[in-house]
Sequence to fold (693 residues):
Amino acid sequence: MKRDEDFDAPALMALETDRMAHAYAARATAGLSPAALALAFGDWAMHLAAAPGKQTELARKAARKWLRYVNYLGRAAQGSACPDCIEPLPQDSRFRGEAWHAWPFNAVQQGFLLWQQWWWNATTGVRGVSPHHEDMVTFTVRQMLDIWSPSNFPWSNPEVLRAAWRQGGLNFAAGAENFLEDWRRSVLGEPPVGTDAFAPGRDVAATPGKVVMRNRVAELIQYAPATAQVHPEPILIVPAWIMKYYVLDLSRHNSLVKFLVERGHTVFMLSWKNPTPQDRDLTMDHYRRLGVMAALDVIGRIAPERKVHAAGYCLGGTLLAIAAAAMARDGDERLATISLLAAQVDFEEAGELTLFIDDSQVSLLEDMMAAQGYLDTRQMAGAFQLLRSNDLLWSKRVKEYLMGARASMTDLMAWNADATRMPYAMHSEYLRRLFLRNDLTAGRYEVDGRPVALADLRAPLFAVGTTHDHVAPWRSVYKAELHTHVDTTFLLTSGGHNAGIVSEPGHKGRSYQVATRGRDAPHLDAEAWLAQTPRRRLVVARVAGLARRALGRAGRAAGDGRSARRGAGRIRDATLRERKEDDMATTTDNTVVQAWKKQLDMTMRVTEAIIEGSTRMHEVQIEAATEAHADAVATQQSLASAASPADLLRIQTEWLAANQKKSMEYWRHLYEAAAETNARVMRCLGGAAPKGD
Fold:
């Protein structure tokens, strides 16, 4: 037995030094592991280098895409209506506007989409690459390509140019102002613009309730029913602690808590404490014991001998499933039903979040969390933004910084900005035991020293998935019925991880599918369930929802004179704005007219420079495409006439070397054309006429 005095202190110091170095590296890389990324690209590159057939196929695809593109350019440049040579993916909304289908912007976006498709072909289907590494490489390359999307630059985005034309370039000034304001708030740790209109307790989380339990992990809030007749069995809601609890008690029209109490239910909801460095050692079991189980004990004292209907959302649903399995194992029958809202119990197919979860990545996160005691809000938000970078990152920046228009703040967006932290020990356990090892469905997850199994559950199960969920994909949520032997109802609703769950009855455009499987019914896979279950739309519910909101507005107007005054103030402000705009439109002040003429002249010169530069870049692309096609044809003929494997390898090696050299020349010419265009644009914006005009 090793004695304390024999403990290897230098080895421990070396380990701590490594962990500290990893923690600093993680802060520089936003928590992403460079080693994991290098392993993924190394795996892909080595297997691609050893796959001459794949290389030849990629060359053939490149030549075909160039030919399609050149053919499209010839037809589009003549101004004739012609179908696109490639369509964007259904979820890609960057190029849906009509302006993107006019010359020369149609050529720009079609070239980008073909380029993007070729890289998808290059990063997928390489024999021997592990699925995880293939997903990482494909995702990373897609993120890199998205940076260079033509929609992200003012000179290649027709919608930005149109806004600049109409506003005389003032949209860029407004965008700069928006950027500086966002930067200031980020540096000072202030919430985003517009969140002050959704203050908790006033505008959101406003359903009356009282705290009936408080400990180091959570508070339990009780909401009394608002009707004379009351349902006998209470409801317990277990939200996720990655965000604030009031996602299920947002505004009056979409608050689940308010909806339930108005129908005679007694509701209890956990509100988790935001952890500090002192809470670094909190584990999943702390959240189970001091959260779910402590809440059930308090509810039992308030409503004795009553079973509880428990509902868990996201990570709270996973915790509820663990607690319920442990209760079933121990013969605790206090749960009447179990509802899992966008919550996973099987993490084998946990969606794109698994891109950031492997041993290297988790080790780096653990070292970073060990240094600070928790996972910070910004570090979590970055991963979620990357999953939907087009919607949450680039399109937002284009709208606010290039178009100069602020996106209107909503209650859900304000709630999302009111984020929390995750304690070190709990998050490490969550990632390793559930995401990496999938212990819960494998029967290895232990509670109180003994494993738990979802097959022990006896309470009916209700699970909800959403069609566009990037956090808990609905097919993964659906697997809950695979691991249980109870009556299970699964509902699939339109929307995302948050918006799909909190949508009120009658939300415009929402639809759903729902079906129940008996405990003795055979298993139905997710695709078969999707095909067999009819889709329903909220037609009647929408009418009821509209009527309820109208009544609510009428009641608020009658009971609160401030609403009427605010409404009158808004009408007055709108009237003044209209008068001001009319005055500007009818003014005859020569100074103003001259200023607008000067601004218009500058905009015309900028647009001319951009169009000429785009034409030059297209000429470079056409020349490269023609030459690449000729080389590909010649190489194919040489490969067909190769007499031996050695000749085949020699021809491929020569083609790759020549292609690499020509690629460098192509990118150099393209860069020179882009640099010249940028210089002309900057001279125009500076007031000097560009050379050659």
The CA atoms of residues 22 and 28 lie 10 Å apart.
